[in-house]
């Protein structure tokens, strides 16, 4: 086993990942690398559930609101930046904590990405316009034509995944699926993955409550301030997309909020599906005693 260890905390949204990550960072006297792609952007605070001031002060965090929505920042950019930061942290720490619900970004650090060709940024902009004007079905139909193999296994409700696959197809002239499952380099650190879960009813209840709190805390005002940028990739996400429909007059506020809850619940289901693919994950319940979780991690560190 490598002498350096990354403890990766994963799980569905609103399950308590930030809380556990802070407990672990404090126990192991270390720092936290965020792998939540929605929390990278400084203009998006309420709708992405960015850790609050007290949480950020409780342990050093990295990759929280370090970019603007006006900047292009891909999972490949994050992989390089995160690995560089981990290299720095591991010069002083034997253990670092990573936390996030963005499965692709977690895997980018833990396993590495498949190598895709560079593509013209205008292609993504055109696809975002297509999505905003004609909806997700237009993206699905286009991908079914250009790469039926990937279409049959992709999360068809996730516009980010559809747009990413399409821009590679269009930019390279080859199917997105042909670039997948390439051999990846091994990481110079060990990984212990801790997954947090709960019964579905509890997860959904926590999500509904969180959305209500976001609305009370000013989500509408935050989204309205970003309305002029609604076509940007960073804003093609739950919590903002639905409110843009309200601001355009297509939906009532009540319906928009109900859609945020519904789409967040769907997102949580997809997160669990993604994270459960990793058979090495040590799963804990959302209300397990943190001391027991720490003991289990320390046992793995000794193994």
Automatic annotation (TrEMBL):
Its EC number is 2.5.1.75. Its cofactor is Mg(2+). SUPFAM superfamilies: P-loop containing nucleoside triphosphate hydrolases. InterPro entries: Dimethylallyltransferase, IPT, P-loop_NTPase. Substrate binds at residues 13-18. The record marks 102, 124 as: Interaction with substrate tRNA. The keyword Magnesium applies. Belongs to the IPP transferase family. This is tRNA dimethylallyltransferase. It comes from Cellulophaga fucicola.
């Amino acid at each position: 086993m490598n002498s350096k260890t990354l403890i990766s905390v994963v799980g569905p949204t609103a399950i308590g990942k930030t809380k556990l990550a802070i407990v672990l960072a404090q126990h192991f006297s270390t720092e936290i690398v965020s792998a939540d792609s929605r929390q990278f952007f400084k203009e998006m605070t309420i709708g992405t559930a960015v850790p609050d001031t007290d949480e950020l002060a409780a342990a050093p965090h990295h990759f929280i609101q370090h970019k603007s929505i006006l900047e292009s920042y891909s999972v490949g950019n994050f992989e390089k930046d995160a690995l560089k930061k981990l290299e720095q942290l591991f010069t002083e720490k034997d253990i670092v904590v990573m936390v996030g619900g963005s499965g692709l970004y977690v895997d980018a650090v833990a396993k590495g990405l498949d190598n895709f060709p560079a593509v013209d940024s205008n292609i993504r902009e055109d696809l975002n316009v297509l999505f905003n004007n004609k909806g997700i079905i237009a993206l699905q139909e286009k991908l079914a034509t250009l790469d039926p193999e990937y279409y049959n296994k992709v999360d068809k409700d996730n516009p980010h995944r559809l747009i990413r696959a399409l821009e590679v197809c269009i930019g390279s002239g080859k199917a997105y699926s042909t670039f997948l499952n390439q051999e990846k380099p091994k990481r110079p650190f060990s990984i212990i993955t801790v997954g947090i879960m709960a019964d579905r009813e509890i997860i959904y209840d926590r999500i509904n409550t969180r959305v209500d709190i976001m609305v009370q805390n000013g989500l509408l005002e935050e989204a309205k301030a970003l309305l002029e940028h609604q076509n940007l990739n960073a804003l093609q996400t739950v919590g903002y997309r639905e409110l843009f429909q309200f601001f355009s007059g297509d939906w009532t506020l009540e319906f928009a909020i109900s859609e945020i809850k519904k789409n967040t619940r769907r997102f949580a289901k997809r997160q669990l599906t993604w994270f459960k693919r990793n058979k090495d994950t040590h799963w804990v319940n959302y209300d397990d005693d943190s001391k027991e979780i720490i003991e289990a991690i320390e046992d793995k560190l000794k193994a």
